[in-house]
Amino acid sequence: TKSSKQEVLLLRAYKEDADGKNFVVCSRSVRCDSRPLEPGFSRGELLPSGYIIESSGDGTSKVTFLGQFSRDLFQLVQPHVLQTVEKFREILEQEAASSPAIERRDAWMELRKAQNTD
Question: 25, 118, 52, 117: which is closest to 80 by C-alpha?
Fold first, then answer.
């Protein structure tokens, strides 16, 4: 029988261009035999996916999400993708309100911290 609870083991990498204006974040699920399956869960798979964050040059950025999902996993991750984008926007808006010059690297690190605590 298929469990309604799934866990996904992710490998994530990110790269910033030399100017520090653009970022690429890539993720995919990995197999890890040393990580046993939690009781009551099934192991999901996240196919290659990621974000491209490009500076528009006017103090704004364009965020593009690219994802390849199985049908089952799409249903699982869809709400989380939207939450991540909304959290990222919230962090950037808070930074913009408190400082005329947004340090995107700081905002990016805040997003990563928020994801690790959720």
Answer: 118
Tell me how far apart the alpha carbons of residues 85 and 52 are, in angstroms, rounded to a whole number.
12
CA distances from 115 to 57, 87, 101 (A): 27, 9, 24
The Cα–Cα gap between 63 and 69 comes to 19
Confidence of residue 118 (pLDDT cuts 50, 70, 90): very low
CA atoms within 13 Å, Cβ hemisphere of 68: 7
Q: What is the pLDDT of residues 2-56, one digit of tens each?
A: 557 888 889 999 999 888 888 999 999 898 888 888 888 888 888 898 989 998 8
Enclosing H/E stretch for 108: helix 104-117
